[in-house]
Amino acid sequence: MAPSCVVRVLAECKSPGTWIAVQTKPVMDFAALAKGFLILHEGADFCDDCLARALGVDAAQARATLTTLGKSPAFLRDQWTCKSCRRSTLVTRAIANPTFALNRRSRTRLRRTA
Questions:
Q1: 108 conformational bin, left if phi > 0, alpha if psi -120 to 50, beta if neither
Q2: Are 71 and 113 in contact (CB under 8 A)?
Q3: Which residue, among 95, 90, 80, has the nearest Cα to 38 in the 3D structure?
Q4: Which stretch of DSSP H or E encloses residue 25?
Q5: Of 5, 55, 62, 86, which has the fewest beta carbons less than 10 angstroms from its beta carbon?
């Protein structure tokens, strides 16, 4: 399964009839996507499976990355109820940061682009 955050770049053809090579370059890594998603949904708990499904990656990759994110003071990882699937399991949450508080208008705009 190809991640949704991949840009396809076409290589230049040297002569007519040459096959065009397609290279894929990831725009953002999963850790950056997960941070952005969790900060946008600040205060909401998501399990590894739901977060992986929302961002289009496999659960094993999500679990490894979220374990690393959970060691950061900006994220909390604990047994709780997932907002998406309502299961009581290990979840990750972005802790509210008073210096980067988004008002209602900003949150609405960000959700439209996400």
A1: alpha
A2: no
A3: 95
A4: strand 22-26
A5: 86
Residues 62, 92 contacting (CB under 8 angstroms): no
Domains observed in the chain: 29-113 (1.10.10.10)
Distance CA 60, CA 34 (A): 14
Whose tokens are 């998406």? That residue is 84
The pTM score is 0.61
DSSP 3-state percent helix, strand, coil across the chain (nearest 5):
40, 25, 40
Distance (Å, whole) CA 79 – CA 75 = 14
Band of residue 5 on the pLDDT scale cut at 50, 70, 90? very low
